Amino acid sequence: MHPVLEERVRELREENHHGASWMARRALEALVEAVESGEDPLEAGRTLASARVSLGAIAGAIGRVLVSGTPEQVIAEAEAVIGSRDRAAKAIAVMLAPEITGTVMTHSASCTVHEVLTHTPPARAICTISEPGAEGRRLAAQLKAAGIEVELIADAEGPDAVRESNLLLLGADTVFRDGSLVNKTGTLALAHAAQDAGVRVIVACETFKLAPFDPEQPVEDLFELIPAALIDRVVTEEGAANTIDVASLVDRTPCLQRGYDLLRGRRDRLRPPEGS
């Protein structure tokens, strides 16, 4: 393995402070570096996707660019996807603007959620610390710097706090075709509490986080599976969808399936190398 690629894979495996969008971008940047250094795009892509198999965002982004074809086309598409990431987040923020009222609660540190809340500041935001990793502290500091009133709370306080909120706004590491999602541990308890209290739960994510297959339990303890029944809507740059309609959105984005096919078809065959 090329030393630069090896270092990028190590970085992805050890990362626990940033969200899936950030890691997908780093994986794409690593793919470009590897291909420019003469690595085979498909093998480099498989290696990067296997670094964090619980994060469909990485496999989705890598697969999307691998279907482009030649190494030169893969590089060009990767750079295009990296460049479009900010535009996608802004489009999601515009679509969600009418939903941002009162108190909005979030968990972990989604870049997309940050974009939504800074675009349309709520009266108040609640961020969980989000252990392990405590990335919620960084998100809370960023929102405060943007002039938003923010309360940072311990994870254990989250279920009680969400009952007093108007909206639970989540990012996602993976959204499956049935509308269920993988996200940071602690999300499931918040989603249950929100449903019990009649608080809306909306997921904001880019389309490359959509996985064209049925839900699977994450292999890392940092993440957990949240059933579609606990989610009200999923909003991507392509529009908003009820969970029952996510499959149609996946089917309208054929590069998702083709990308996963290139990455050996199914994520359950993407496993870190022995001894990692």
How would you sum up this structure, described in words?
The protein has 276 residues and is of the alpha/beta class. It has two domains: 3-83 and 255-269, Four Helix Bundle (Hemerythrin (Met), subunit A); 90-253, Translation initiation factor eif-2b, domain 2 (Rossmann fold, 3-Layer(aba) Sandwich). Helices cover 47% and strands 16% of the residues. The protein has helices spanning 3-14, 20-36, 41-51, 56-66, 71-96, 111-119, 135-145, 158-163, 187-197, 246-251, 254-262; strands at residues 103-106, 124-128, 150-153, 167-170, 174-176, 181-184, 200-204, 210-211, 223-226, 233-236, 239-242. The strands form two sheets. A seven-stranded mixed sheet has the order 3-2-1-4-7-10-11, with helices on both faces. A four-stranded mixed sheet has the order 8-5-6-9. Strand 1 (103-106), helix 6 (111-119) and strand 2 form a beta-alpha-beta unit. Helix 2 (20-36) runs antiparallel to helix 5. The two termini are 14 Å apart.
As laid out across the biggest beta sheet, the strand order is 3-2-1-4-7-10-11
The number of helical segments is 11
Q: State the shape.
A: globular
CATH architecture of the largest domain: 3-Layer(aba) Sandwich
Percentage beta strand? 15-25%
CATH class of the largest domain: Alpha Beta
Total E-strand runs: 11
**From N to C, what is the helix and strand string?**
HHHHHEHEHEHEEEHEEEEEHH
Separation of termini? 14 Å
Mean pLDDT: 92
Could you please say which CATH topology of the largest domain applies here? Answer: Rossmann fold
Q: What is the makeup of the main sheet?
A: 7 strands, mixed
